Amino acid sequence: MYYCYQFVILLCLISVITGYPSYQDQIPNGKNVPHPCKKNYIWKGVGHLQMNGGGKRNVFGEAFSKAQHKWTKQLCEADSDKDGKSNGEELGDPNCVWTAGSKPTSTVGISHPGICEPVDSEECRSQQSYECGGEYNCEATNQTGVKYIDLKFPRTKVPPNETTFMCNTFTVPADKRYHAIAFEPLADNANVIHHMSVFACTEAEASQTKKTPHVCNMSKCRSNYITVWTVGLEGYCLKNDVGLLFGNGSFTHFSIELHWNNPKKRTDYYDGSGMRMFYTDKLRPYSEGAMIFGQQYIKLEPNTPETMVEGTCNKKCSKKTFLNRVNITSVLLHMHYLGVKARAEQYRDGKLIRVLAKDEPYFYESPDLHIFDPPVEFIPGDEIKTTCYFDTKKDFRQRSKTVWWGQGTQDEMCYVIITYYPRMKGSGFHACINTADIDPCDPQVSGNY
After folding, report:
1. Of residues 13 and 178, more confidently modeled
2. Dihedral (CA of 264, 55, 197, 183) sign
3. Which of 35, 207, 391, 425 is the most buried (most CB within 10 A)?
4. CB 175, CB 267: distance < 8 Å
């Protein structure tokens, strides 16, 4: 039951949504805005700082929001990114005559209304902090001998339910031992895809799972946590000396759990998302693992501007749960819609040694992935303190009923997931999670997981 609970956490851990696709239809050429730095790439989240949407808005997104998400003459004539061209000129509506559903005056020569271009010019550098070259770039995928396999769902009908978890198990090469070195999303239907979780399992475990898409609460193929994908991430590239082990004598099957969100309960949606996994038989020195911290007792009273929730993995429990020194490579904080800010702190011998992650403000749609390069050390006995803040009073967060911990987006969570190497023995992930003020290593609590 203990590990089963952990998998529920991971399954629900990263639930993010794409930049609202319907907004693309409210501006001319909304689905045809090119990436300012990468040829043949479309910037789907036109109003956001991230290419695929979600998270913080850019200057055009702020202006679009003030215009009540409508293409007005004032918004069209404005030069949001201050690059000398009006928003209308950049989006193919120079005369500001376009209306939703009609064809724009021009569909060529489109540029980004929220990012000053050319990005590397002196004028644009003085206007914004955005720079080319910061996106996902995994050179290892082009190395000799590196192969890939697509772990992709067939086009599957999306149920007319607000939330659906869909699982599928895939056979991976097992003729020898391999290291997975990178994952790239194969996102199909942006209207429904929330996130994708990837797990691995043995042949024996896989024999008990379905090899076709099916509705699930969690996959039975879950011996080892591999990775997750969220909207806003173009891919996940492991460090050059770290890989995820699978193959002969190890894991022979991978499962992908899709989280679909269909709030309008439409009956005409289909999705065939998945992940492309790059792998090599040239094993790297280390294998990667994951660990989770946080608080599972959450009670948020209605109409309350701020409620703080904390969870601390104490020194005793840390020594019991984590058996050796490891190197932290990334940290991700997780709450749902009511979360407004959060942080994760690392203590040693009662002293704060570093803030691992601090999201102020926090955005459920696209939380920040905090990368450590070089990695930082975690020693058994180090305490991890997770602090989350929630709002049930303001704007869309207003609630009239008490909100508790739960898996749905209408519920709340307070977690931090940390990736590290070398992977500790046993499960592919370890957890030290509080239940109110009870010691997370209390046998009675662990037994109820």
Report:
1. 178
2. positive
3. 391
4. no
What is the three-class DSSP state of 383? strand
- Separation between Cα atoms, residue 283 and residue 276, nearest integer Å: 19
* Residues ≥6 apart with Cβ < 8 Å to 102: none
Q: Is the dihedral of CA 432, 435, 440, 442 positive or negative?
A: negative
Q: Cβ-count burial of 85 within 10 angstroms (0-12 exposed, 13-18 middle, 19+ buried)?
A: middle
pLDDT of residue 217 exceeding 50, the answer is yes
Q: Which amino acid belongs to residue 130?
A: Y
Task: Kindly indicate the confidence band of residue 2, based on its pLDDT and cuts at 50, 70 and 90.
Answer: very low
The model's pTM is 0.68
Write down the pLDDT at residue 233.
Answer: 67
Residue type (1 letter), 246: F
> Model confidence over 313-354: pLDDT tens digits?
999 999 988 888 999 998 989 888 899 999 999 999 999 999
* CA atoms of 124 and 243, how far apart (whole Å): 39
Q: pLDDT tens digits, residue range 257-291?
A: 888 888 889 999 999 999 999 999 999 999 988 88
Burial class (CB in 10 A: 0-12, 13-18, 19+), 266: exposed
Dist CA 153 CA 212 (whole Å): 8
One-character DSSP codes across 27-76: STTTT-PBPSSSTT-B-S-TTBSSTT--SSB-HHHHHHHHTTT---HHHH
Q: Does residue 449 register a pLDDT over 50?
A: no
User: What backbone torsions phi and psi does residue 66 show, to the nearest 5 degrees?
Assistant: -65, -25
DSSP assignment of 319-367 equals HHH--S-EEEEEEEEE--TTEEEEEEEEEETTEEEEEEEEESS--TTS-
The one-letter code for the residue type at 298 is I
Element at 446 (helix H, strand E): helix 443-447
For the chain, report the end-to-end CA distance as a whole number of angstroms: 5
94 burial (CB, 10 Å; 0-12 / 13-18 / 19+) is: middle
Which among 18, 17, 58 is positioned nearest to 337, based on CA atoms?
A: 17
Q: How many CB atoms lie within 10 A of CB 67?
A: 17
Span 391-405, average pLDDT = 92
Dist. CA 113–CA 116, nearest whole Å = 7
